[in-house]
Structure formats: structure tokens, C-alpha cells
Amino acid sequence: MQPHKTPLSTATQPTIPTFIVFILRRLKDAGHRAFIVGGAVRSIFLQLPIIDWDIATSAQPKEIKKIFCDIRFFALKHNTVTLVRSGRHFEVTAFRGQGGCLEDDLAHRDFTINAMAFNPQRNEFLDPFGGRMDIQARQIRAVGDPKKRFQEDPIRLLRAVRLATELAFKIETRTLETLS
């Protein structure tokens, strides 16, 4: 799979908090790939305030803990280390999927609008599943096979309805049929 890569326009480019830049730089300096992913990227294109900043990385949880040993953190979720700074939580998660790469990570996300990544060092946006088109169409669509996505995590059923309600989006037909 070759991800669709495009630069962000100046109007779309977000202001990245200093701590996020620090996280990305420290991971890169340790020899790892790291990207802003998920809801933060979705919010960029919806021009909404970014509340949750999530990072996907090639580093494994043990490596993340070592790289950020001087920062308060906890690890409740599998493959995720949550860094704590000024009372806020920042999730740093090892790439999902068997391939251990960004493309596999995005392929295992719930909805296309959450399966996008942003590399601020290159000002590059990656969208292998058409999340930006779904944002423009104002629809929630599962990545790949909806049944498989919901079997991976049944909470995604509720998340589809929550996102559709919060964003005033419709749920794409195949995804909606799988919800029923």
C-alpha cells in the first residue's frame, strides 16, 4: 500500500505544542519514526481545536519508557505509554499491526477520518484510506472491512455513533449495516 502524501497548506497547518515537538524530536533523535495521528489530524482538517495529541512511533513500549525516563508516564494500554506534562496526557503508541510500520498502524485504526498521519518535520500529511475525502463528504467509514474493525474492538461501535453525533456526520452504508 502506498500512502497518499501531500503537504499541508499554510492555512491548514496547525500550531504544534512545544511538548509535542519535543516528543517527536526525541523519538527521531533516538532513531525512530514518529507521527501525529488520529483525532488530532482529523481536527486539523475540520479546523477544530486539538484536544488530544497522539503520537504513533516505530519505538516499542520499553524503548519509549527509556527514551522518556525523565518524564512522568504510565502505561495502562497495550503498546501505549502515556506521558504526563502539566496535568495533560500525551499518548505515544508503538505502530500497530504485524509490519511495525506507519501504513500497518493506519490500516488498523477504526475509521478513515482517524487513519491519517502528519509529519510536521516534512509538513507532510499521509492519508492512505481517504480520510480527507470522508471529512469533506462528512461521513464516518470504517477502515477496510467494518466487521473486522468492530471485532477488533467492540467499543468502536459506540465510537462510530458518538463521532457521527458530535461531528454531525452520517455513517457510511456498509459501516452502518455492520452496526445493526
Plain-language structure description:
- This protein is an alpha+beta fold and 180 residues long.
- The chain is 37% helix and 20% strand.
- It contains eight helices and ten strands.
- The radius of gyration is 16 Å and the shape is globular.
- The mean pLDDT is 91.
Report how far apart the termini are. 30 Å
Segments where pLDDT lies below 50 for 5+ residues? Answer: none
Q: How is the largest sheet built, in terms of strand order?
A: 1-8-7-2-3-6-5-4
Helical content (DSSP H or I, runs of 4+): 25-40%
Structural class designation = alpha+beta
As an assembly, this protein is single chain
Properties at a glance:
single chain; 180 residues; eight-stranded mixed β-sheet; two-stranded parallel ribbon; 8 helices; 10 strands; globular
What's a concise summary of this model?
By secondary structure, the chain is of the alpha+beta class. 37% of the residues lie in helices and 20% in strands.
